[in-house]
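Researcher: Structure for this, please.
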Amino acid sequence: MATINNAALTSVYNFYQADLVPRSSSGSPTAHKKKDLQDIYRSIVKLSKDEPVFLMDRSTELERYTIHMKESALRFREELTSIGGTEDERIFHRTAAFSSDPGVAEVTGYPEKSGDAEQPEALELEVKQLATPQENHGKFLPEDERDLPVGNYSFDVSTQNSNYELQFTISEGDRNGDIQKRLARLINNFKLGMSAEVEEDGAGNSALVIRSKGVGSRNGSGTHFSISDENTSQTSGIVDYLGIRKVTTPAEDAVYSVNGDYFTSPNNDVHLKEGFDLKLKSAAPGNPVMIAYKADVESMRDDIVSLAGSYNSFLRAASEYLDQQPRTSLLVNQMKSTSAYYTGGLAHMGLSQAEDGTISVDEEKLSESLRTEDTQEEMGMLKDFTKFALRKANELQLNPMDYVDKRIVAYKNPQEAHYANPYVTSAYSGMLFNGYM
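Model: Predicted structure, C-alpha cell format:
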C-alpha cells in the first residue's frame, strides 16, 4: 500500500478549498448554545433508532428539493429566533419603559425586560431643578443711541480649556443695537462653547445675553467662562459698557430624587442605578413622575407581522414541490388546517387566512386591539401557533427526508430497543455543507 503523503494532501485540499466560496445566507444564523447542539444530537439519535429502513431515488431533483426544504426551515427558525420565538417566555412579550410625564423626564434607555421575569417596581422620580448654564446678562441700553467712542475694540474670553481675544470695530453710524447684534454673531460664529443673543424689553432697549453651552456647577464654581478687557490688545471699555462681565446666573447641577433618595447630576442626562437612562426636561417640584414598564405595542405588532411573513414564506416554499413530491401535501395541509384553527380565533386582532393558507394581517386593527383590549387569551393562542410552526420547522430541518417519496423496506419493531444507526442520517447530513455547492 502506497504511503499517504499528508503534506501533499493538505496542499491539494487548500488549493481546491480556496475556490469554494460559501453562498451568502439570507439572514444571520443564530449562534448555537451547547445545549442546543446536545438537543439536536439527541434528536438525531432518537430518529435513527425509530426510522424504518427505506430506499429512495437519489436524483438531482430530489437533492434540490431536500436542500431547499431544509434551508427554508432553517431560515424560518432564524426569523422566529429574531423575535424571541424559540423560548416560550419570550414570545410576543416585549416591554418598554415609559414616563408618566415625558415633558418632565423622558426615558431614553432602559434595561430589556422580557418573558416571565419579574418586572421591577415603578420608580417615583421628582425633578427639583434642572442643570442650568452660566448666564452673563448685559445691561439694557437704548437701541438707537451710542455713548462709546469710534475705534477698534477687543475683549478676552477665558474658558476651561482656552483663552480667546475677540476684536471688532465701532464706526460712526453704529448704534447700541447694531453693536450688540454684531457681537452676538461674532461669539456664535467662533464656537467658543457659548451662545449669545440680543434681548429686547419692548421699550426701545436691548441687552446682550451670553450663556454657556455646557451646564452644571463645575464643582460649585458656577462658571464656565469669564469675560474681561483689562489686558486686551485693542481699546478696552466695551465689557463694562455692555455689562457682560458679571455672572448674573451661575450654572447649577440638576437635583432630583428617586423614591425619596436625593441625587445631583452635572447635566440633564442621568443614569439611574436601576439601569434607566433619562433626560430631565423641566423642573417639577412636588409633582413626581412615574418610571415603569408597559407592553411595547409597536414591537409586539411588528413581531406578529414578521411571524406572518415568515410563516407565509415557509408555506410557499413547501407548496412549490406539491407536484414533484406529493408527500409534501401532508406538511402543507397540516399547516393550512392548523393555521385556520388559530386564525379563526384571532380574527378580531386582524389576522385572517387566505385560500392558499397564507396569513394576512390588518396592522391597524392589530394595533388597536393590542392597545385597547385584554388580549391575554389571544396572545396565548398566538404563542401556541408559533410553537406549532416552529416545531414543524425543526422537524423539517432535522429530517427533510420525512416528506420524500421513498420505498419502505422494513419497519422496526416498536416493542424492541434499537441501536442508533448513523447511516440513516447520512443521506442528508451532508447537506450541512451545501453552502459550498
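Researcher: Any notable elements?
Model: The two ends are 33 Å apart (CA to CA). The domain at 133-242 is CATH 2.60.40 (Immunoglobulin-like).
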